[in-house]
Design brief:
- The protein has 429 residues and is of the alpha/beta class.
- It folds into two domains: 138 residues, P-loop containing nucleotide triphosphate hydrolases (Rossmann fold, 3-Layer(aba) Sandwich), CATH 3.40.50; 281 residues, no CATH class.
- Helices cover 46% and strands 17% of the residues.
- The protein contains 18 helices and twelve strands.
- The strands form two sheets. Strands 7-6-8-9-10-11-12 form a seven-stranded mixed sheet. The protein has a five-stranded parallel sheet with strand order 2-3-4-1-5, with helices on one face.
- Strand 9 and strand 10 form a beta hairpin.
Amino acid sequence: MQRLLMEKLIEWKNNADKKPLIVRGVRQCGKTYLLQEFGKTYYDDVVYFNFEDTPQICETFERDLHPQRILKELSILRNKTIEPHKTLIIFDEIQLCGKALTALKYFYENTPEYHIVCAGSLLGIALTKKTSVPVGKVEFLTLHPLNFYEFLLANGKKLLVENLKEDSKLTGIFSGELREKLLDFYIVGGMPEAVKTWIESRYNIEKIEEVLSRILDSYLVDFAKYAPTKDFPKLLAIWRSIPNQLAKENSKFIFSQVKDSWRAKDLEDAVEWLIEAGLVYKVEKIEKPFIPISAYADHTFFKLYMCDVGLLRKMAGLPPSVIYDKNKAYTEFKGSLSENYVLCELMNLYRETPFYWKSGNKAEVDFVIQDDADIIPIEVKAERATHAHSITEYCKKYQPRKSFVTSMETKEGTIPLYMMWRFKEYLKE
């Protein structure tokens, strides 16, 4: 399964002044598979250690943090010497061993000739617990679930997407096929296991529902296993309320709708846990789109979206049939699903979560991002862009150099939803 982050891994390997690399990402988004494929393809040898499956490996780091001793003991454990430059060392679920995280500093300072990559599903949670991570001595990359471009590649559409990269005029010619694939993506989402099952089962809907249910169940297990015991009921309640809150006309996250007796101060820590785990994205409101955009955010006024559009659909209880059939009963939630999809595409392109703009009860632009010196508003339309009232109001007020509407249409002045993976190219054009 081709992942765009592989290019970044190759750049890291070729960097003469590389530091140990940590790949972050939500559980089951494909980190382990990607790193192992990277090792098999670009190294003579790969050694893999998993701190979750084999917790005793952590004992190797307990005595001291001398890299040469640690490397010698790890070589004995695998019964084969770890070679500098030739062996890729993979530490998986590294957040479960604080000493291993700290040791990365000494690997960088004393044995930079060894190539070390790490994966962490709940690394953000570990960092909030003040685990000693050597700032400035490691590099970070984030792997998200597959975006729509990667989904098309997995579905054997490499020639199509490569040509779309070069010639955007082809979009109109293939709009029907791309729209159909996007609807598939709304159903399946970008979790690698779901995509793999979709393709191998020849589009078996029942199998997809089983896979997504398993993934969601595994997240609940993580809540119980890794979150503070007192926060588990809150995490569960917030997590389950996200689809319902997005379905409202005003999709601002309201704490009292999680449970009547709970207020913001009771739930803020649980919300942050979900954000740090990478399971949800917090999109905050701004009233003034000025630079730096984060300085104008209202941290108390926000929406919560999910890390994957397929998981959102499954949690919302939307049967796959309504996605294809244009069921009128689904119309209310269609906008939220499209917004969540666009957000996930933006998260694959940008390192920072976007914001949204709201002006009283008059207008609301779904996403506002900062791209270098430009503040760019993006309005999402689930079908046709017949009335883009909010972005029109925004443009009248602030006159941005660039603004975008995205919808299912291919007409001039809009970005088709199924081409959001090309958003940065549209900025240049």
